[in-house]
Specification:
The protein has eight helices and no strands. It has 178 residues and is mostly helical. The protein starts with 10 loop residues before the first helix and ends with a helix. 17% of the residues are buried.
């Protein structure tokens, strides 16, 4: 991604390309979320993400398709996150033997929640890859197809994501934040 100001799209160029997409994006968001307020949030986040990636946007062949795909990816990420938070916290609590104490189960749930928060702070691509691999159990080949990276690129990104989470977790633990 180029962040050189010379290649960044101007606000007026951005509006000309993507503002006409708003109405259709909103109606698709309504169908996805089944809620007007959530749909508005989804469209707003999509526009924000598009604006932040405006250095890449002049290469886009179809602004409508790109905007819709961006919005759909945000929706899927949110849905996966909610599902993971619920199921992973339940697994952390129920994954213990019968003789585990309530304190052990609570500590595991808190640890899992902290790790999920750290994953949320990763760059988007690393967050998606670590989520697909470690939380959804997706094979490397499928992650490569979904992200457009080579398998080696997926492994590298996954390794960096895991390392970043591990380092931040240790930092937080040492600082007494956990």
């Amino acid at each position: 991604m180029t962040t050189d100001n010379a290649t960044l799209m101007t606000a007026s160029e951005f509006k000309c390309l993507f503002l006409p997409c708003h109405k259709q994006m909103y109606w698709v968001a309504i169908r996805l979320t089944e809620n007007a307020e959530d749909a508005e949030d989804l469209v707003q986040e999509a526009f924000m993400r598009l604006w932040l990636k405006r250095g890449e946007l002049p290469k886009v062949d179809s602004p409508m398709s790109f905007a819709m795909r961006t919005m759909r990816n945000i929706f899927i990420d949110r849905k996966r996150k909610r599902r993971m938070e619920k199921s992973d916290c339940e697994m952390a609590v129920t994954g213990f033997t019968d003789n585990s104490t309530a304190d052990d189960r609570l500590l595991a749930a808190e640890t899992m929640q902290q790790v999920l928060l750290l994953i949320d702070k990763l760059p988007e691509q690393q967050r998606r890859i670590i989520t697909m691999r470690n939380l959804e159990g997706m094979p490397m080949e499928e992650i490569a197809r979904n992200t457009g990276l080579s398998e080696a690129g997926v492994r590298t990104s996954l390794s960096r994501a895991r390392q970043a989470v591990k380092q931040q977790f240790k930092r937080n633990d040492n600082d007494g934040k956990i």
